[in-house]
Amino acid sequence: MNVRILNKTAEEIKVEIEGEGHTFCNVLQQILIEDETVEIASYSIQHPLVSNPVVYVRMKDGLQPEKSAAAALHEAAEKIRYRCGEFRDGFEKALKEWQKNEPPS
């Protein structure tokens, strides 16, 4: 996944994510919104067939000055990775349980 920073300050960041669409960006936006230091988390896709999504994050003023928008984006990516691992582990456990209880063919 290629990510290009379009604009970056301590309070804001705008990045373009090559090759992704609504599925990934919606998850990213939802995780960012869970962060109480994030004021705005949004994304836009100008045209789904020819455009890459652009993600925008702006931090709330004065809540955690040492936390930048880039840090919030990094934390969100780590949370996504962790939750994907939780899902994988839960799915593998359910699959093993299902196979154990599956009636013979």
Helix content: 40-55%
For the record, the count of structural domains works out to 1
Indicate the structural class: alpha+beta
CATH class: Alpha Beta
Looking at how many chains there are and whether they match, the oligomeric state comes to single chain
Strand order of the largest sheet: 1-2-4-3
Helix tally equals 2
* Uncertain stretches: none
CATH fold name, please? Gyrase A, domain 2
Radius of gyration: 18 Å
Would you report the number of β strands? 4
Characterization of the model:
It is elongated, with a radius of gyration of 18 Å. The longest helix has about 35 residues. The protein starts with a strand and ends with a helix. The chain has a four-stranded antiparallel beta sheet. It contains two helices and four strands. The relative contact order is 0.16. α1 crosses α2. It is α+β, with helices and mostly antiparallel strands and about 100 residues long. The protein has one domain: Gyrase A, domain 2, CATH 3.30.1360.10.
Keywords:
elongated, 4 strands, four-stranded antiparallel beta sheet, 105 residues, 24% strand, alpha+beta, Gyrase A, domain 2
Short overview:
The chain is an alpha+beta fold and 105 residues long.
Present the secondary structure layout:
Elements: E1 3-8, E2 12-17, H1 22-34, E3 38-44, E4 54-59, H2 69-101
Helix pairs in contact: 1-2
